[in-house]
Amino acid sequence: MPLSQRWTLTRYLIEERRRFPNASGDLNALILDISLACKAIGRIVSFGVLGDSLAPEVTAAGGAVNVQGEVQKPLDVLSNEIFLRMNEWNGHLAGMASEEMETPHQIPGNYPRGKYLLTFDPLDGSSNIDVNVSVGSIFSILRAPQAVLDSGREVTVDDFLQPGTEQVAAGYAIYGPVTMLVLTVGNGVVGFTLNHNLGEFVLTHPNLRVPADTHEFAINSSNSRFWEPPVKRYVDECLAGKTGPRGRDFNMRWIASMVAEAHRILMRGGVFMYPRDTKDPSKSGRLRLLYEANPIGFVMEQAGGRASTGRQPVLGVKPSSLHQRIGLVFGSKNEVERIERYHHEPAEREPCNPLFAERSLFRD
Ligand SMILES: O=P(O)(O)OC[C@H]1O[C@](O)(COP(=O)(O)O)[C@@H](O)[C@@H]1O
Ligand SMILES: [Mg+2]
Ligand SMILES: [Mg+2]
Predict the structure, then answer these.
(1) Quick one: 94 and 187 in the same domain?
(2) What's the whole-number mean pLDDT along residues 340-352?
(3) Ligand 1 center to residue 219 CA distance, Å?
(4) 198 and 67 share a domain?
(5) Residue among 274, 288, 291, 328 whose CB has most ligand 1 atoms within 8 A, to mutate
(6) Choosing a second label site near 355 at 20 to 30 A (CA), which of 36, 71, 129, 219?
């Protein structure tokens, strides 16, 4: 299709707004500012180590330990700054929360509070930066509580503790061979590709749908000895392939960059698992609910897929803290439902079928 016939992100948002004649346009403006932050981050990421001379702060920053107990890469810190600076003055936000900040970021100045809250993972999969594998940024937009708008008070952690079903919009940018922005405003999922000549995100994937069935799963199998029995059972059955109860062969992938896994699943189906396990009893999963699981979950559900903790829809979980971790399973609906079923079935099938335990690559 010629470029002239494709919508830009701006045009898409204008057309979306026509569906709501009374809308103020604030949400559109906020999404455009987020897209600008993503363009800026994507550009810096694409320079790799050559970026040092363009942005000296890339080398100067980082090395600190964030609230997750993880060492921040310089690009984690810089991407976080870009999100903050691109969004704090636009007037549409009451506050922001990020993987890289322990407490919510207050909007400076005494202006009336904006209507929305933004949570984000500024750079997802950042352990992959040094090896030139796709990384991304994940974002989620919530409504600010009425009490914040009425009083003009600063935002608190509690204001952000809303279940994923309350998200107004969510999405991610992926910085790979091509830079893409994937977005849902609760009306399906659309994908835009960055046209570097125009500096514009152009609508290239107008209706992304996750196939209900798949033959591909993704899990970090180095954690297999910590998995709970339902997860072990599911993976063992996949590995047993044609000779097992599933009667067909499966393929496995693990990129260690959730954004890249989510993108693959949106493009061709699959199931992703970072389930709750017994590795560290103080953590109920690896991924963070508010700025990883919920936005990716919203995208998946809007694309006809499913997102779950393994036991219940992840979007239904009422968060208990800003940086809460959670088990996460998402992707092709029939597979996610199967994994949920295994979690709900009585434990008599456990431990997993000895036939598969015998053959399993991942047995204890
Ligand atoms: O190293 P592991 O245990 O495989 O974990 C990989 C997971 O961690 C993450 O990198 C966490 O995100 P951050 O890079 O934003 O901390 C996910 O993208 C990915 O799925
Ligand atoms: Mg992440
Ligand atoms: Mg991150």
Answers:
(1) yes
(2) 75
(3) 11
(4) yes
(5) 274
(6) 219
Residue 56: band (very low, low, confident or very high) from pLDDT cuts 50, 70, 90: low
* Beta strand pairing call for 287-288 and 200-205: unpaired
Residues 245, 190, single domain; the answer is no
Q: How many angstroms does the Cα of residue 304 sit away from the middle of ligand 2?
A: 23
Is the Cβ atom of 99 under 6 angstroms away from ligand 1? yes
Torsion angle of alpha carbons 152, 154, 155, 158, nearest 10°? -100
Total domains in the chain come to: 2
Calculate how far, in angstroms, residue 205's C-alpha sits from the geometric centre of ligand 2.
24
The answer, yes or no, to whether residue 351 has pLDDT greater than 60, is no
* Inside any domain, residue 211: no
ipTM of the complex: 0.94
332 lines ligand 1 (CB under 6 A): no
Distances (CA, A) of 279 to 105, 203, 207, 225, 325: 31, 42, 38, 8, 13
**Is-contact 340 311, C-beta < 8 A?**
yes
pLDDT in tens, 194-209: 999 999 999 999 999 9
CB 258 less than 6 A from any atom of ligand 1: yes
- Ligand 1 atom closest to the CA of 70, numbered from 1: 16
184 in a structural domain: yes
Name the residue with tokens 């919510």: 104
Instruction: Determine the structural domain holding residue 13 and report its residue range.
Output: 3-205
